[in-house]
Amino acid sequence: MTLPDPPQMEIEARRRSPWRNLSLVWLVPVLAIVVSLGVVWKNYSDRGILISISLPAAASIIPGESTVRFRDVVVGVVENVRFAPGFASVIVDARINREVAATLPENSGFWVVRPVVTTRGISGLSTVLSGVYIEGDWEPVTGSSLTEFKGLAEAPIVRPGRKGSRITLRSTDASMLPEGAPVYYRGVEVGQLDVAHVSPDGGSAIVDAFINAPYDRYVTTATRFWDTSGFTVKLGPGGVDLNVASVGALLTGGVAFDSAFTGGEPLKADTVFNLFVDETAARQSIFTQTGDNALEMAIIFAGSVNGLSSGAPVEYRGLRVGKVTAINAFIESSPSGGREVKLRTTVDIEPLALGLTAETGRTEALAFLRDAVVHGMRARLTTTSIFSAGLKVELVELTDVAPAEIVEGENDIPILPNVPSDLPNFTATAEGVLQRVNALPIEEVMQQAISLMASIEGIASSKGTQEVPGALAKLLEDGRAFLNKDDTQALPTELRGAIADLRSVVADLQNRGAVEKLARVLESAEKIAANVAVTSQDFPKLVNDLRDLAAKAKALKTEDLVDKTTALLASADALIGSPATRALPGDLSNALAEIQAALKELREGGAVSNVNAALSSANTAAKSVATAAEDLPKLTAELQGLVDKANSLVDGYGEQSSFNRETLSLLRELQATAKAVSQLARTIERNPNSLLIGR
Amino acid sequence: MAHARSSQTAPLTARQAGLVACHRCGRVHTADAQKCVRCGAVLSSRDDTSLQRVWAWLAAGMVAYVPANLYPMLETTSLGKTSDSTLIGGGIELFRHGSYGIAAIVIVASVVIPIGKFMAISYLALKVARRDGASVHLRHRMYEVVDLIGRWSMIDVFVVAILSSLVQLGAAASVKPGIAALSFALSVAFTMLSAMSFDPRLIWDADKDGARDPA
Asked: Which residues in chain B are contacts of A39 at CB distance < 8 A?
């Protein structure tokens, strides 16, 4: 058997539609393409928006690697780093997530995070290993399409978007206000300082501070800032006061703030605060600075305002409520037709310090003061302290004053009524004393004294008096045994001394030096008393004493003294000017001449009768001297009394015044003279022979 | 006669002999048999959908090869710094650093072989059943090489897999496979599937055509 031929296979496969013939495997590439396209589309749609950030320097930013982060989440990658036109800065192109880029406001902050070591710590340490990155911070907005931003050179102290208030502090020295220094409120760190810079005018240092919400609502116009860095040491009555805010603040500096008074308006934009050196200065600043709504008032003081200066405080019950801004004079026509110079003191009164709110307007503050004036408030001048003659204006509430009210003066400035202070009263007292002193009949006293001097000089310079010593000399020459009379010799000298003293006193009196000295004494006493009286309540006794003294001085029988002095001088004048006294030198001369003659006769071997005659003559002379000297004890007594009176007067004034000394020495000289004359008279009376025998 | 003549110029094919071999177990059936009597596999003298599948897998492989080159193969994190390296980029970098040998291996494994495979499979699929071009024998050799070498393309993927499992030192250094690794693996897998889908018997049909048309 042969193998049958294999049947011819007719492959007439029905031509199937190419779609039916399609393999399922085609799904795989289709799927791959779909997935790829999907990935591409997703990539494209996820592709961030290219923003450009201009930075001062690239700071080792690597394109494609360095990231852009927001709140430490990577939101983009740096794609390119290029120079800005002009090579002034570097522009970093970064691709930021689409949804993040839409939230970028214009003030977005971008900076390069690098490791930074400051006194406040180390930051950015992670970038040592991972490389730098760009940190961004902003307050997200919606629908932003900005793509160009200005970067920051350094990480800002205050991140954009942080809630709080930015304020500006002004200080004279920012050396202890480093960047990032804390701001404390009641010891809690509530903010930070920005970089300090010098104000445009160069006059101060300006540092911005950021107070975090919600603490920024404690910052009002009533807030005062002070520097807490370093420490303060105060030595006061309470001992040593050492104040250190914190060791941290000691190192890093910092500022603190608190409300200096109640009220205060909320912050306005761009508020500038002064930075005070310490808390005390900050709290007292409300007394040295008046706000915008200070009420300007004028006070027209009747008396002198010597000691009141611009800037002097205006106090109300010891609390400073304002300050004196100006003192000037103006001319007012008095009703009588004359023109009068008056002194106007302009003061600024702070409504806040009076307890009114900061919003108080001028009208309301004025109304408040009007009411107070109706109830007896008045301005008054007082001294600022016991140690100074400076004055301040005090607003006092008095009950027994004449009713007054605030009236509008020039330029509609209200005029605050005032009362005379204690000060002028005291001055008036002292002035009264001085007036009495002025009214003393010093001229007459001097006239009397001058005529006395003239008389005494007349005696002294009279020929007869001058001849006495000559005759005595002759007498001594002729008979030494008889001639040794000290009293007689001393008499002219003492008289001359007395005259010289009197002359100097008279000269003093003539120059009114004494009066001025007395006035000065009284003035200084007044000043001391004024200071003592007004400033301290601890010294009323002293003031009383001084017042008593003044009263005593006033009550002193000065007129009596002067009268007596006058009378004394008059009697002295009368005594000296009496014929008997005038005759005395003549008699003495005659006696001496007779003695001389007698001695001559004795020498010539004359008779005893001559001696007797001479003795009787001497006796006569002595008798006349005695007669003349009869008045002398009286004079002495009167002088003594005068001296006593003067002493008591002087005791009242104190012992160190030159007037006192002069007066005393004069009176003592007068006393001594009188004593000497009296003694001479007595000696001659008791023993007339002594004239002859020298004992 | 005709048979004998034909078989002299070209070997007799099973199809010409009216036979069909089971693709799975190799038992020969007559051409009209539908199922293998031994293993039950569906018998077909020629795989009608072979070329379709070849093209489909090839297309998928080529699509996957695009991201494999665009995306990073490796994400190396060293001391906080992350650097990506793509297939070609890594090779070029190695070349720059002077590691020419390794650079050659990397470039051959990741670029030359896949692209060569694409080209080879495309050529085979396009030229199937045509006489022009390379000889049937060369085509068959080409197919065998493609089939054999396909798996070695996975060398890159192995490197990535080993590195990313070994280098996990936390912050100091870590290696993660990138998207390209997956894409490349897929691309290689698709290409292998493409090569496997190719029915080499189609090559012989071309030879038969050639034999049928003697000069």
From this structure: 67
